[in-house]
Write a structure and sequence with these properties.
The chain is mainly alpha-helical. It has 24 helices and five strands.
């Protein structure tokens, strides 16, 4: 800026206003944007007691929807590259839930540290690590406390292993339950009888399995999939039928592309868990069957017959519980989630196997109805306000000159959900000099701190201080990207020489960062921003039919919600093209899947790394894929699903009306040097 007043009015004040608006929006959401409304306390270490199909107290696995995390002391994990806690960014600090969680963490950390060397150390450590895991599953900031949770769980496992060895040497019973709780344990055997006991009541082996599985879940969340498998397997060495470990080992196998192993574990849980406490095997087996049908004995027929044999009973139980026990929200939600999974699995069966669109739609509609039954109504006005705020603050004259890092290290992928971003990331990640993290944005995790620090420096009146602040923030993002990769690599199983990499680019894929292009540009004016866009109704219908993790994407499952979110996305992307023309590189998904041999070299060229022909074989590489598109991305490039929504067009009339003129997207791939194929060449 040429003068301080100009700078103040065009940059500092709008930035301060945006921070205020963003934090207020987070308060209105009751959490970070995109997160579901949650309390600041995790579930108890013992199971809750929602009702199952028989009307009696159902057993609910501790945090059954949270991914596994466990690891034993025998698993050597490197912590040399773990960032200091004080250096890690956080979600919006004005959020009441965030503040409450941070207070709880300090309190539990103090109790744990005070318990060192006492008989309370094990339970204090488990509760502290459980809370860290819970917090990082609810605030999406890149995993602030994951490495600390792993460290605490490992310490607890070491102490429990010492106790176990001591009992073995004395000939004591390592499965002796400490107290007799009144729990319905019929139908379960071995350590599964302890699944629903409080920590104080568990045996030494029961505590070992609980801590190992929890450790595995954190490792999974941290993209340490092989380590997670090792943790589950150490638990299974005590009891090979431990349901929690089998369920989440299957999930890790699925991510690792080991479909036979995943199918085996999910099937075993389905056979053992007759009360359907663990809901994941139903939807997990559907993913396995979609990827490799012969991975499950009996294929789709086995799974469909299992569901159809139970569906009516589960539906009656749900209606009965709703009628007689409306205040039992946990029990109702548990049953609703199970029914949602059953119906969405039957939708998938008819969609991909029988091609019966009418039957598929019936189950999709019912599954989405169960999903939305206990979600707060969609706040359309708030969504409009969020998109409008971005457009009002980031005006053409907003961006100061001479600010930002020269680094090209990050590559940002943005877009609407289900647009082909995973395919684009895997193509980049298959290059030996590029690393992708899946859906775990380090930049997005630091965004609150970035906003606040830029405002603080802006209001100080010293352009040099602002320049230094922005540079430091950019350096921090790059440093954490490298630290995260080195930590993940150090915790992988032995790597072959041809699997070792020295990356110079790190892919940060968070699709909703289309809202944050302005901040990306301030920090990294030279970094590559790739916007992947898909035919509108294909991406909208794909989002509508997808079972996202509970949170801010729940509203994709209703016409009004998915249409409004799509309009906001288009509004904001068109805004960036106006105020930062040419800054975002657009990639049409349809060009990517029909013209990959010509597209891939241009993508790699845009990333400023040398071409490597093995990029075209990206689907053959064994990199773990922690994404909603796990199975699809391993199948390589295919285009048969283009215009796939047309099969369901007769049911989508109201949605088409809501999308309006935006059913068309006149957007061209803007990769330098790339000319799209003409229709006659396709």
């Amino acid at each position: 800026p040429s003068t301080w007043n100009t700078f103040l009015w065009t940059f500092a004040y709008p930035m301060a206003a945006l921070v205020l608006i963003s934090n207020w929006g987070a308060i209105e959401h009751n959490f970070v944007p995109g997160a579901a409304h949650q309390s600041s306390e995790p579930a108890s270490s013992s199971a809750g007691s929602p009702l199952h199909a028989t009307g009696t107290a159902a057993r609910v696995s501790p945090e059954p929807t949270v991914r596994p995390t466990s690891a034993s002391s025998s698993v050597k994990e490197s912590h040399a590259k773990t960032p200091e806690r004080s250096a890690r960014p956080t979600a919006p600090q004005t959020s009441p839930e965030y503040i409450a969680m941070e207070k709880n963490i300090k309190r539990l950390r103090f109790k744990y540290e005070k318990s060192a060397g006492t008989e309370d150390e094990i339970l204090a450590g488990m509760r502290f690590a459980d809370y860290l895991k819970y917090r990082d599953s609810k605030i999406f900031d890149g995993g602030t406390y994951q490495m600390e949770a792993i460290s605490v769980y490992r310490s607890v496992v070491t102490l429990l292993e010492d106790q176990w060895r001591s009992k073995m040497s004395l000939g004591d019973d390592s499965r002796e339950i400490q107290s007799r709780e009144e729990k319905d344990l019929s139908g379960y055997s071995g350590l599964n009888r302890e699944l629903f006991l409080n920590y104080e009541s568990k045996s030494v082996e029961g505590l070992l399995c609980s801590s190992l599985v929890s450790l595995g879940k954190v490792q999974f969340m941290s993209n340490m999939f092989e380590r997670a498998v090792q943790s589950y397997e150490e638990c299974l060495s005590f009891d090979g039928n431990y349901l929690d470990a089998l369920t989440y080992r299957a999930q890790a196998f699925l991510i690792l592309g080991k479909f036979d192993e995943a199918g085996r574990d999910y099937t075993r849980v389905l056979e053992l868990d007759t009360d359907r406490v663990f809901r994941e095997p139903i939807s997990g087996l559907a993913k396995v069957l979609t990827a490799k049908e012969d991975a499950v004995p009996g294929g789709w027929t086995y799974l469909v017959e299992t569901i159809e044999a139970e569906l009516d009973q589960q539906t009656r139980a749900y209606e009965k519980v709703k009628a007689v026990s409306a205040d039992n929200s946990d029990g109702i939600k548990h049953l609703a989630d199970g029914l949602k999974r059953m119906h969405l699995t039957l939708f998938q069966y008819h969609d991909v196997k029988t091609k019966n669109a009418a039957a598929a739609w019936k189950h999709l509609k019912r599954g989405n109805d169960y999903k939305l039954a206990y979600v707060a109504p969609f706040n359309e006005e708030l969504e409009k306000k969020r998109a409008l705020n971005v457009q009002q603050v980031f005006t053409p004259g907003f961006f100061p000159q001479g600010i930002g890092s020269d680094a090209r290290t990050p590559i940002f992928i943005i877009g609407f959900v289900r647009s082909g971003s995973t395919l684009l990331e895997r193509i980049l990640d298959s290059h030996p000099s590029v690393v992708g993290y899946g859906e775990n944005s380090i930049f997005n995790g630091r965004l609150d701190m970035i906003r606040n620090e830029i405002v603080r420096a802006s209001m100080g009146g010293d352009p040099k201080a602002l320049r230094a602040t922005v540079q430091a923030l950019a350096d921090g993002v790059v440093s954490e990207m490298r630290d995260r990769w080195e930590t993940i690599e150090a915790n992988k199983s032995e790597l072959r020489d041809d699997e070792r990499r020295s990356p110079v680019r790190f892919v940060d894929k968070m699709l909703t960062n289309y809202m944050n292009v302005g901040f990306i540009h301030i920090l990294f004016p030279n970094a590559l921003i790739l916007h992947v866009a898909r035919e509108p109704m294909d991406t909208i219908f794909s989002a509508f039919k997808h079972d996202f993790t509970p949170g801010g994407l729940d509203y994709m499952s209703e016409f009004n919600g998915v249409a409004r979110l799509y309009h906001s996305y288009r509004d904001v992307m068109e805004h960036w093209d106006r105020v930062l023309p040419g800054r975002v590189t657009h990639i049409r998904y349809e060009d990517l899947v029909t013209d990959l041999p010509r597209m891939a070299p241009k993508i790699i060229e845009a990333a400023s790394v040398d071409w490597d022909p093995t990029v075209l074989d990206f689907h053959k590489k064994k990199h773990a894929v922690n994404t909603m598109s796990t199975a699809q991305v391993r199948q390589g490039v295919y285009s048969h699903h283009i215009k796939g929504w047309k099969r369901y067009e007769q049911y989508l009339g109201p949605l088409l009306d809501l999308v309006g003129d935006r059913v068309n997207y006149d957007l061209r791939t803007t990769l330098k040097g790339y000319t799209p194929l003409q229709k006659e060449e396709l």
